[in-house]
Specification:
A hairpin with a 6-residue loop joins strand 4 and strand 5. The strands form two sheets. The chain has a five-stranded mixed beta sheet with strand order 3-7-6-5-4. The chain has one domain. Helices cover 29% and strands 43% of the residues. Helix 1 crosses helix 3. It is built from three helices and seven strands. It is an alpha+beta fold.
Length: 112
Amino acid sequence: MAKSEISGDVKEFVPNRSELAATVRRIAEDSGRVGFSVHSIDRMEKRGIARLDGLRVLRMGELRGEIECGKSTGEWKCKMVAKLKGSREIGVVTIVVSNGRLFVKTVEWEDT
């Protein structure tokens, strides 16, 4: 775990980027451990992105952007991004839940 400064002497633990990305990839290998929000399903339908493509991004993407605290202790929000063969870059914003599951918040094209 790495540390990031919040203010003064107070420190908040933030997961190591490469470790968190590896955790997302590992969890996503079992599609039964990945939940999709109603919003993410709606966004995928409107953007023509298949659920399987969202899973592929989680399984082989790179972590891009900030890592944020989730709503509960031990949860982390991050975005995994990958360019799939014959496609544009896709971003999948997900919450790594403390019980070893992923909760997909939204799925988006990265070039718009």
